[in-house]
Amino acid sequence: MENKGQLYDTDYEIDISLNNSLNITPDSLDATSEGFGETFIKKIDFRGVRLLYGKLLFLKPVPVQVVNDNPHIEMYFSLSGRRDLCFTQSSQRSTVTSGSHNLYYIPDSEFYIEPQTGEEENISLQVQFTEDYFKRFMPTGHSVFSSFIKKIEDKQLAVLGEKELKITPEMYTLLNDIVHCEKKGVIKQLFIETSVLKLLLLQFEQYLSASAQKEKSYIKPYDIEKLNVVKQLLEENVAYAHSLAELSRKSGLNDFKLKKGFKELFGTTVFGYLHGLRMARAKELLTTTIKTIAEIAELCGYAYVQSFSTAFKQHYGITPEKYRKQERPLQ
Fold first, then answer.
1. What residues in the chain have per-residue pLDDT under 50?
2. Structural domains for the chain
């Protein structure tokens, strides 16, 4: 991967119905596979960073060969569908399930992605850094990252997390902003680079939090399922005025276990998680519907428009009205 100072933005659309293996190189795509499905890949390059946004729909099993011109560090976000990463030269495999992410150092000159087959589209965003670029932000001085950094120095395949971690609402918002960014030129480059570094920060923080939780855990194994019930209740109705008392009753957890356990398992408080869901939902409604700000506020659980506008501005640094105008200037 070259260290480019200019932003390059390219789309590839491939129908794999004519050929029989899929090969991706840094600057070209070549599909060879009969009746296997179709794929779309969007590539963006700039200053030591490459982004690959891929949609793969395979009806039959077929490995996707990725040719790697230089060792790189990669943030891998699986937005939909499960993928197995097969590093043939390092003789290792890694799995990223839907809604999860991990960080890799990949020295192999080639590796394979094996998406699950079926009707569900496999959607992912890969953010690749050159070694020189990543070294500027390498988190030295902490045991969580020491093994990862040592393997980079030794040119050995490295996976930061023993287990993948879940993509948070804040991460989803950033991923959505990157994929659907309509800015142009240097403004687009600055916006995407800033968003990518924020993603890297959130990933580091999440792994630090997971490590601290592993060292000292308040959660009993049988309470994890109950905490996931709480998370599901929040996700299913972001507008509802949830209370800790009601969530405790519905999940079978007492107040202490609910608050401590949720923070430990998901890296944020119950209401911090709900707030993130509401802000992500608000952003989606502002850009994909013509609903009024008052209607969006109500759908996001706010009784007063002013309260919603204040919360939105505190979260994103811009009012809902200005955000909508910025993202949909002609509407």
1. 2-5, 12-34, 330-331
2. 8-214 (2.60.120.10), 219-327 (1.10.10.60)
